Amino acid sequence: MRMHLAAAALLGLAPCLAQADCFPISGTVQLTPDAQCQVASHFPTTAFTGECFSVTMSMLGIPTGRGHAGVTVEPALGSDGNVTTTPVVIPEDDAPVPRQIVQTARSAIGVGWGPFRTTLYSSDVMVIRPSFDASGAVAADSFISEQIVITGTDGRGLFANTTGHMVVIGNSFSQPARVVGELCRN
Q1: Alpha-helix residue ranges (DSSP H) falling in 126-185
Q2: Mind listing the pLDDT tens digit for each residue in 81-135?
Q3: Average pLDDT over residues 142-171
Q4: What's the burial of 168, exposed, middle or buried (CB within 10 Å: 0-12/13-18/19+)?
């Protein structure tokens, strides 16, 4: 019965994908801590900070995506004009608190199941406007915007060779945040 439902869902989705090169996506994404930093196995030459997550992505009309993401160490230009690495903190004038935090990340998210499963790989940039709690820690209500570019796939499944981009608006750490974007089939 499960395979019949899967086949029906794929047949229903196939005309939509076949007729359009690109299509809009909308849904939610949620991150939970991943102490094993499993995303690193997908990007062996990338330096990770150790801040890693399991990802659940729910998009309208697309099977739920599950995978891993992690904050990376990437070259960047600092506010003083010198080369530095991410994460980058942009200070608030003379105050010691940051105005913005810029982070980079990589993610690998599997969409679909069985022979129809595709792993999407992405490169992400997050801009965080932090607010702080009484202890000085970054509070959960901090504003976060994340721009995601799909940089490749594993070449298998329904979404093989898909490209696209997404924007996450809001804090997705242990809570759902809205995500919108576009997927394109090549």
Answers
A1: none
A2: 899 999 988 777 666 666 888 999 999 999 999 999 999 999 999 999 888 888 8
A3: 94
A4: buried
Q: One-letter amino acid identity for 127?
A: V
Tokens of 63: 């099977």
Ordered structural domains, the chain, with CATH? 22-185 (2.40.480)
Q: Which two tokens stand for residue 112?
A: 């679909």
Helix, strand, coil percentages in the chain from 3-state DSSP, rounded to 5: 15, 55, 30
DSSP label of 45:
T
pTM (predicted TM-score): 0.82
Q: What one-character DSSP code corresponds to residue 21?
A: S
Asked whether 47 and 69 are in contact (CB, 8 A), the reply is no
